[in-house]
């Protein structure tokens, strides 16, 4: 059973679980599954009669997933293997779209992998929310050399607790390069042939600094619950259930980062030393 954390991992899995119970798909794809620790391994255990396929472009993460998750209804593949699979009734892309260079092409690709009535669960951070603002501060502090001092203080105050597996969600170094506002993500969803069937926020506060302050199950539970009553722009992350539009939008939409997005991308690439 997943423990409650500031990132709303348990809430995310519960959201996906309820969607699966309602839609009853036969085979589910998680694209960008990483090591499988955060989502797919839990779902395979909850739904032993459903087939799950985890796909990720990082070879090390897939190797880890194959070694550590042995459920009969669960397989892990590299993206090229998808050409041998039929279309899926449900695709999960959780915390992936903020990492890809061309998010519009990414959503169109996932749309092609769906059956006619297939659904897509898309989760992502609010690019202007508390988590990303804290991440921006962390990046600046790292690049200015102040962060090592703060880390020593943080370790003294808040030592890592056993049992949390979210830190091994992926073995790849893949910083966020997209930072969506509510308006931008809605436009992207519509322009790529999807519409929002349902949406829900995940948590209010999480990330650098907040992880030290938010301690104890009562506070963490409240942090997840209060997000449901806040404006979408105030929360740290969003969860969407998407379905296909009956008619494709006219014209070809290309996602372009604004000045803030370009600067944040540059900052993150520098902070994680990615060229």
The gyration radius over C-alpha positions equals 18 Å
Estimate nothing, just give the exact number of structural domains.
1
Give the number of helices: 10
Chain oligomer state: single chain
Largest sheet: 7 strands, mixed
- From the N-terminal CA to the C-terminal CA, the straight-line distance is 38 Å
**What is the number of E strands?**
7
Structure characterization notes:
With 275 residues, the protein is of the alpha/beta class. It has one domain (9-129, 168-271): Rossmann fold (3-Layer(aba) Sandwich), CATH 3.40.50. The protein is 38% helix and 18% strand. Strands 3-2-1-4-5-7-6 form a 7-stranded mixed sheet, sandwiched between helices. Strand 2 (51-55), helix 3 and strand 3 form a beta-alpha-beta unit. Helix 5 (130-143) crosses helix 10 (259-271). Residues 162-166 have low confidence and may be disordered.
Could you give the topology of this structure?
Blueprint: H1 9-23, E1 27-31, H2 40-46, E2 51-55, H3 59-68, E3 74-77, E4 88-94, H4 103-112, E5 114-125, H5 130-143, H6 147-157, H7 182-191, E6 194-201, H8 210-213, H9 217-226, E7 237-244, H10 259-271
Parallel strand pairs: 1-2, 1-4, 2-3, 4-5
Antiparallel strand pairs: 5-7, 6-7
Helix pairs in contact: 5-10
Short description:
By secondary structure, the protein is α/β, with parallel strands linked by helices. The protein has helices at residues 9-23, 40-46, 59-68, 103-112, 130-143, 147-157, 182-191, 210-213, 217-226, 259-271, and strands at 27-31, 51-55, 74-77, 88-94, 114-125, 194-201, 237-244.
């Amino acid at each position: 059973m997943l423990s409650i954390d500031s990132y709303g991992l348990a809430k995310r899995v519960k959201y996906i679980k309820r969607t699966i119970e309602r839609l009853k798909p036969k085979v589910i794809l998680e694209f960008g599954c990483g090591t499988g620790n955060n989502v797919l391994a839990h779902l395979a255990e909850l739904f032993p009669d459903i087939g799950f396929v985890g796909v990720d472009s990082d070879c090390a993460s897939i190797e880890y997933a194959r070694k550590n998750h042995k459920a009969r209804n669960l397989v892990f593949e590299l993206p090229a293997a998808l050409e041998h699979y039929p279309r899926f009734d449900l695709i999960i892309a959780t915390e992936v779209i903020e990492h890809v260079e061309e998010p519009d092409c990414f959503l169109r690709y996932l749309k092609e992998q769906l059956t006619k009535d297939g659904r897509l669960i898309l989760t992502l951070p609010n690019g202007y929310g508390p988590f990303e603002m804290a991440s921006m501060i962390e990046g600046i502090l790292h690049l200015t050399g102040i962060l090592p001092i703060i880390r020593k203080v943080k370790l003294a105050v808040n030592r890592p607790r056993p049992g949390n597996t979210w830190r091994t969600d992926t073995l790849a170094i893949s910083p966020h390069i997209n930072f969506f506002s509510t308006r931008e993500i809605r436009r992207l969803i519509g322009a790529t042939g999807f519409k929002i069937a349902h949406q829900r926020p995940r948590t209010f506060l999480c990330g650098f600094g907040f992880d030290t302050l938010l301690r104890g199950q009562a506070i963490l539970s409240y942090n997840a619950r209060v997000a449901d009553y806040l404006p979408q722009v105030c929360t740290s992350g969003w969860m969407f259930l998407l379905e296909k539009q009956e008619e494709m939008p006219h014209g070809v939409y290309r996602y372009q980062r604004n000045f803030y997005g370009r600067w944040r991308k540059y900052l993150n690439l520098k902070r994680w030393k990615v060229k």
